[in-house]
Fold these 2 entries.
Entry 1:
Amino acid sequence: MRIVVLAGGIGGARFLRGLKAAAPEAEVTVIGNTGDDIHLFGLKVCPDLDTVMYTLGGGIHEEQGWGRADESFAVKQELSAYGVGPEWFGLGDRDFATHIVRTQMIAAGYPLSAVTEALCARWQPGVRLIPMTDDRVETHVVIDTPDEGRKAVHFQEYWVRLHAGPDARAVLPVGAEQSKPAPGVIEAIAAADVVIFPPSNPVVSVGSILAVPGIREAIADAGVPVVGLSPIVGGAPVRGMADKVLAAVGVEADAAAVALHYGSGLLDGWLVDTADADRVAEVDRAGIRCRAVPLMMTDVAATTAMAREALALAEEVRA
Amino acid sequence: MRIVVLAGGIGGARFLRGLKAAAPEAEVTVIGNTGDDIHLFGLKVCPDLDTVMYTLGGGIHEEQGWGRADESFAVKQELSAYGVGPEWFGLGDRDFATHIVRTQMIAAGYPLSAVTEALCARWQPGVRLIPMTDDRVETHVVIDTPDEGRKAVHFQEYWVRLHAGPDARAVLPVGAEQSKPAPGVIEAIAAADVVIFPPSNPVVSVGSILAVPGIREAIADAGVPVVGLSPIVGGAPVRGMADKVLAAVGVEADAAAVALHYGSGLLDGWLVDTADADRVAEVDRAGIRCRAVPLMMTDVAATTAMAREALALAEEVRA
């Protein structure tokens, strides 16, 4: 079975661990969000790609969900001593090496997809990880500030520095319109037996991937089950700031509302948490087959069960 | 008193520490060798500038003479895990931060001289440190290899990887002919009361600096005492591979021969070690005032005494 997953960071990565356990024989292609990539200290940092790579490759800081295990921070401390920031983005020494290799390869002319493949040669994540695009796309969030009025900040600044405090007035995937899917993305979708939207952020993660021209259309046209898992449970995101960025696109932080936001033109099936069992009927009525199952990724067993439910729902809508 | 010093790495840096102690009121300008600069992992590394900066700024690894004290190597280990070399160049985590800042500033358009000034704002070395040039000059060493015949390697490869094992057939300051002195270099020489060649390598350190068009002429024309200290004691370099690279330019590893290599057109005074007292007469005969004094930089006190001798010799030739 060939499965394509559109993944953001922590939620996507943890779901993928469950999916690999649920379907060990499947060929899994992960289309990774690069909208939250950022240049820091002259280095290209790809937080979502790295979270997937480290999580599936056994290098992740488990409690934190991002960054490397057994990390040290000598480089960052020294950069601070030079007065070079930003201070608010926590890059550890081990993590720096990944960004140094990536930046060096990009400077040498390799596209991000080739760089990602090279990095994965070390991590052996057990999936094929492809960035959504080799082009530069940067998710910006429009906020109101007391001093500077309305302005756009990089998503990482909104989330990591400002902790999603200010309301998001708009979410802009800058550069997306001019971007092209990375080599292999459209081919993987066309060859897929199932497409899964894990419980990643529907706006800044899955939404950024769908904003790359051609990807949404390829999924809609693939003619195979497309199944998603709600990142909203009980009216709030399980983690992250999905409620804030959903509001920016006029969507309620609600398990059913997210399914309708994707729409029946894209989604065939949708899983909500048992806490949202009362939302099932509304999604069903919209033409998206919906089930309520436990959606808290408390451990690999729970996550594996979620992946099994997603695959079962896919078979159900296929039939 | 305004003193200009042409400095390489460890020898130059240690001498400068003595000079600052010997002449605490002097304005010292250090023209640093950049011929051994190298790009590693996409980062610009300036070993000699950093050795001077760290040594005078209190950040040097004292026993080693280069690199940072209390260093760790997480980044390098990770780069190795990615299969990214070279393995033979030991960059520590703290040191990496310096190269990251430098590379980022250069990519932003700052010349190396401005970058060096910015880095020194943290280290406060107590001297003005200027790279010999803002242009790219790379010292290459021509060697004979069993497999590839005669070829040129970067100086760092010759010294750090090959430990100066193969005979040096030639030393090439690639790019020097097209380079210009960095802003402030010629002005500092013109304003100097004394110019000192510390016991740095006469070929790959001081020689590279003198290979930048205009610097040798400025020193010769300054009309002030130019005094050097021999890096060769008892027919061998105190440290490093000066004997190997001197052979490449047809100069014996001999305290007097080095003075004659610089020549009386450039040098007014020359200090040799007491072990080489028998070489004094030959240097004197060549028109370079010579003295034999202890030249082993065993500690700051011994180094300070050397600097005092150099300054005393300068006053003697001035009179």
Note: Chain B has two domains: 2-33+178-318, 39-124.
Entry 2:
Amino acid sequence: MRFPTLSKSKSPLFKSPLSYFKSFSSSIPKSPLPFSSPSFRYLSSVPSTSTEKMSKDKSFDRSAMESILTKRFFYVPSFSIYGGVAGLYDYGPIGSALQQNLINIWRQHFVIEEDMLEIDGAIITPAEVLKTSGHVDKFTDLMSKDTVTLEVFRADHLVEAVLEARLESDLAARTAEAQISKDSANALSQKKQKGSKPPVKLSDDIVNEYNEILAKIDNYNKIELSEIITKHDIRNPATNNTLTPPVEFNLMFESFIGPTGTHKGYLRPETAQAQFVNFSRLLEFNNQKMPFASAMVGKSFRNEISPRSGLLRVREFNMAEVEHFVDPENKAHKKFSEVANIKVRLLAAKTQEKGSTELTEMTIGDAVAQKIIDNQTLGYFIGRIYLYLIKIGIDPEKLRFRQHMSNEMAHYACDCWDAEIKSSYGWIECVGCADRSAFDLTVHSKKTKEKLVVRENLETPLIYDAFVCNINKKVFGPTFKQNAKPIQDHLESLSQSELESLKQQLDSQNSVTIQLKDNSSYEITSNMMTIDKQTFKESVREYTPNVIEPSFGIGRILYSLLEHSFCVRPDAELRAVFKFNPVVAPFKVLVLPLSGHDSFQPFLLSVARSLRSKGVPARVDDAASASIGRRYARNDELGIPFAITVDFQTVSENTITLRERDSTSQVRGPIEDILNTCVELVNGVSTWSSISQKFQSVSPSTEE
Amino acid sequence: MRFPTLSKSKSPLFKSPLSYFKSFSSSIPKSPLPFSSPSFRYLSSVPSTSTEKMSKDKSFDRSAMESILTKRFFYVPSFSIYGGVAGLYDYGPIGSALQQNLINIWRQHFVIEEDMLEIDGAIITPAEVLKTSGHVDKFTDLMSKDTVTLEVFRADHLVEAVLEARLESDLAARTAEAQISKDSANALSQKKQKGSKPPVKLSDDIVNEYNEILAKIDNYNKIELSEIITKHDIRNPATNNTLTPPVEFNLMFESFIGPTGTHKGYLRPETAQAQFVNFSRLLEFNNQKMPFASAMVGKSFRNEISPRSGLLRVREFNMAEVEHFVDPENKAHKKFSEVANIKVRLLAAKTQEKGSTELTEMTIGDAVAQKIIDNQTLGYFIGRIYLYLIKIGIDPEKLRFRQHMSNEMAHYACDCWDAEIKSSYGWIECVGCADRSAFDLTVHSKKTKEKLVVRENLETPLIYDAFVCNINKKVFGPTFKQNAKPIQDHLESLSQSELESLKQQLDSQNSVTIQLKDNSSYEITSNMMTIDKQTFKESVREYTPNVIEPSFGIGRILYSLLEHSFCVRPDAELRAVFKFNPVVAPFKVLVLPLSGHDSFQPFLLSVARSLRSKGVPARVDDAASASIGRRYARNDELGIPFAITVDFQTVSENTITLRERDSTSQVRGPIEDILNTCVELVNGVSTWSSISQKFQSVSPSTEE
């Protein structure tokens, strides 16, 4: 994962390296800081995509979901008995299994099916490597401090929060004004009773200026942001103290390797570098064949200034990254036809440049044919990313591919698309897919002097003529002595046209005078050297591959999936359910007895054991104190897709019931048959509709 | 994983916390430092287990294996194009897949089959947590520096290497002496010609002293080690400079969380702490039922002073740890009968204390019955560890369980067994299995004031009588005013017998005088207070669970498995093969064409695709330039268990051949049948001997 940015400054001057080192987070919505209530943003006079990204899903009750996530230990702040640490989370049994399943499906979908070379590189990375890649100098965010309390803020976030709060207050004032003029002062006094600060109306000019700043908030450099803070008197809202001018803060965690305290290292901010530095070994492993892809799954680290938005902006996170190495002169993909007919929702750069966020639904084949997507390989990965996200349960209606605009794209990229998933936080970048050219291989190669190139035998050798100097060493050496080497170096540095003119001179005058860089001159005669035209034949082509990099933020995908899976049963108690599909569900089968009767126990154990031995995670809930209805409900909260109940008929007839979570419909059948069916359902070999005809349907337990 | 140690000092005085914070490494053999050639050690006059652990497998050619590991990119030093970093390794496609398979099988064997609660906690850990657990103060090794070059050494390793080199030199001198007296000076002069330093003979007393030091090398504290360095004039062998006295070096990587530079954190040295601090949530998730186990797989970090021995002592490594929480008063295990008949090789503490290293083969049932293994739960996990290691392919002849001796066991442990695997480095601790009592839960609870306990409803409530003070607040309060609270606190702190005697006094004299800690005295009269005997009923028992902790070093297991799987075909070319079983093998099936004929390509692609879609990693080797024999050979080096060949019969008859790696025998059958058979073989549903009868046997390709 590189550092995709949103709406970078439109000035080409700002395409400095800074722009491609913004953190993998800029498309995170501007979620409320503690002192700013959720708000919508005025439409700026210049419509911007970030406005669109802010639109929240109002129908979704995030706090209801979050209370279940915490109560059922999906994930919690790390070390919470010690007060917790911002931006660090511990995944409990459900979160951990969900994460593992997302990774396993990813491995099957990418590594195995695409025959990628997965590696597992070190987390601790020497400073030198990250200096070369640019991270040491450029992987920074801007930070301001409260001048009195010294509390630290990410400067752009603070400006944003303050301006949003002011705009919100202005909106309230305008609404109240309208109300007053319409139907007395009633509304205003009601508003005031809520205990919020009295709304402050702004001038129209200021509203426009604030909106313009918000639309460009990701783009400002240190000086610009400092000017905005001064001009608009941005302060710490909690203390009303002024702020220090923003300074760069490097987002990498620093440490020292070994006992001497001199060998500096960092925790990797991405998994990509380990793949680049191993390029030659990977190519060798692939029997020198191109194109090929490496892959890596693992933790990366970013020391965020002020982490927020739950799993969306954290200090430690799992990524899965692919580096697909490809011939820069041929980015066709041999399996492209397999994704060409997939329809995806695209938000192309051109559309955004027109100020629109309208999605275009089209096939990947058409998008590549029309050059909306730059090349087949990029298109192929967009298709595979789409298939992966749909497979795990992302709602296709809430998935779009947004192309980077030219002003937000890193200088090395010729095209970049983000898979953005919509949640209550807005459209979140969850997968980046960039064509990164040869940037990293080139810089590492330059730094280490190791060739990171492909050598390709040419089917038709390249044949060409060229002028060369043929030196008669017996005369040349003794004539020029210690100057022979510099003179020879100079001759070798000459271009073909310079050699040609030298040859004409030498041929006509039998002598030439050359001048070195230090202004010394030497006369070379034709008995010392001739310049001749020779024919050359090259049968090997050497090139630095380009890299196409699909990069997945597992935590962000996981969080989006939680929102897309969360729903409420439309019954009296509004019970919460996570509708995980069987492939991603942490536990696949719930096993429970109808009651606490002793005769059920051996069946529970043997059923659970049989499922587990077949690799099916099963949860037993035999708490005699809870009704079967309550036990169904509390396990619905864990998203368990199937439930097996052991009852008196099990004891007398050796049959069990199987319940499907979403429909709550149930069938009954012999134990062995039901268990085998479970394995099929869980592995996606069968579906509920296909199997429910095979068994006797039963009415749900009266207790449910 | 805790920090199991070997042969700690025999003095009970040394059972300070230091002893349980030795790094997870002490049973690593004393492998040669660059300046010390491989050596065997004299048998000490007091036989010691560490002597036995040193015995190397002389028949195994480690360098032959290592050259293949590097050439085929199993794993390599990280960032090697930048010169590499000691103790950091990148796993290539084979090493990475092998590691992933070991972890997947572990998850199936432990987490799913045993219904453990797997979590995924943060790597970055606040200093406060590791201060409580003892790591900040005690997780250290002793370090000495060359007084001139300032080169850094792990002090115990350096002493060991120097003494071993001196003993080796002594042995050479004694051998030479014996030779001279036997058959002229020939042998000695030959020895000298090898360019090694002239051997130096030591006195018998010195030899004995050195051997005694070596036997106890893991036990010395800072002062003792310093004395040894001085007394025996230990120097840096490379420079002959003296050394600084040893000082403690903390093995944790340090960093700062957030931008302020004040919130210190460390990279976790083990995964255990995240499980302990989440104990209450885990218990809640398990519906308050005991016993239960949590589990975690992930990277841990130890900033070793001088990493060595390849994957065996590294700075960053994957662990898999189980924390099984159990009632301290009942360590029976309900599934114990399932492992009771497993025979394991035990090296009990008693045997070692007699100076023997003889293994006892016995069933786990007998070992628990005879109290050799302390309890059923510990025995159950030893059985499960055994089954896991055998399942992945560890040679049972090279696996033993060694019990910690009382002098090497941490103070909280009542029993501890290491699964040790024999390789060319000697017996290596690969899994620790300790009964850790309530140590961690107690210290975290004390520090955070969070109760980390189990509350258990008692079936039979506990009924008992006790004396209590009943205070008449209306009189007591006004009488003592601001002193009422301290007096009441004092009364509440009294024991039952003190209360009883107070009651007698009060009943007989209608008044008592009590004295507080500050020596102030107060008279209490019977109108202010009565002391009465009351009956109490407790229906809840509260206790801190004990923890049984099986802890797996994945890298060490992986390395041991490589050695146990490495062999050489007894043919002319001595081709190397890794005999991975199908479950752990990185690639399961090799797909190759008989030759470069065009008609084979579509079959290759469809066979590979079909296997991959079924989750079977397949490698295609269609390099037309290499003979099929050469291609078999180079893929044997990757340990691929099965190979499918596409040949002219495939094109004409739709059949393919399937070759089994170890026997090199081959069968032929219709494509679909062979592919389905492959899936069965890979998943362990079928074996080669069972399937080879189903198909037509074919003679191996003449090219092989």
Note: Chain B touches chain A through 85 residues (CB under 8 Å).
